[in-house]
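Researcher: I'd like a structural prediction for the single chain below. Treat it as a standalone chain; there are no partners to consider.
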Amino acid sequence: MDLRLRLTRWLEALWYGRNAPSAWLMPLSLLFGLVSGLRKHWTRPIRLPVRIVVIGNLAVGGSGKTPLVAWLARELQSQSLHVGIVLRGYGGHGHEPTRVTPETTAEEVGDEARWLADNTGVPVVVGPDRVAAVRTLIAGASLDIVLSDDGLQHYRLGRDAEIIAIDARRGLGNGALLPAGPLREPATRLSEATAVVLKGEGHVPVPANVPSMRMRYVLEYAERLSDGAQRPLQAFRGQSVRALAAIANPESFFGALEEQGLDIERIPLADHAPVAGAVAHAGTDRPLLVTTKDAVKLDDPPPHVWQVPLAVAFSADDAGTLLSRVRGDARTE
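Model: Treating it as a single chain, here is the predicted structure.
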C-alpha cells in the first residue's frame, strides 16, 4: 500500500471514527475556517451567459458526484437540452482550459474527464479556473446548461444552482473543518443548497427547507476491455476474483461487488493514481475487475481485465424533483 493511500486511510479513520475531533488539530481548523470564510466573503462571483449548476461536496472523499454528473447530463439530453461539463481535471497535466476530444488521453486531462466524455457524449472542458473553462466551453457550443463537476468552493464561478452530494454511510464525519475533520465548509452550508443528494443508506441531517434525494449505485455486468465481451456479474460467483479501484472511496466499489455475491481480493489505490503498474503486478491467474474510471487509463489491457460499468438510480419522484431543480423550473426556484 503506497504512502498516499496510507495517509488517506489514517485521516479517514480520524475523521469518520467515533472519536471527537483531535484537540491539537482544532486550531488549524479554526484558521482554515477563517481563511475560507474570508475567501467566500471577498470573492465576487462572475456571471456567465448560461445556466450553471455546480455538483460538489462538503466533505473530502467520494460522494458519487461524478457518476451523478454523468446521470444528469444524460437525463437532460433526453429532454432535448444542450448540456456541457466543466471540471478541474485532477491527474491531468494542463493548466489552461482544455477541450476533451476523442483523441485526448486520461494522462492529459485526468481520468474523470475522459470517463465523462466517453459516457455522456457532451462537450467537456477541463481547467483549474472554472470561469475560463466555462468560457471555453460555451465559445464552441450553444448550451442550455453547464454542469460543474466539483467547484462548490470555486467561489469566482457564479452559479444558478448547487447540488451537494454526500456519502450517507459516512455522513459529515466528526463535523469539523479540515484538517481536524473532513469538511471544506461548515455543515450550515447545506442550508444554501438547491438540493442534497445522499448516496446509499444512512442518516444525514438535511435542513428542512432543502429537498434531499436518495441515490444508489447499480452494478449489472462486466465488460472485458480487450474485446468488449460482456458477462453478468453473477457469472463471477463461485470463483476468486481481484478488484482494483483508484477512486476516492475504493470500499464503495468493493462493497458493491460483494453485495453481488462475489469473493474478491481488494487492490485499493489512491484516488486518481496510475493503475497500469498495479494491473501488471496483480497476476493473470484470476479475473481482475476495475472501475470504468480506472479503465480509461489502460492503453493495452490484457484479456483478464474487466471493467464494471456503474449506473446511478433514483426513485421516480426523487429523479423528477432533482431534474426540476437542475433545470430551474419556475415552481422550484
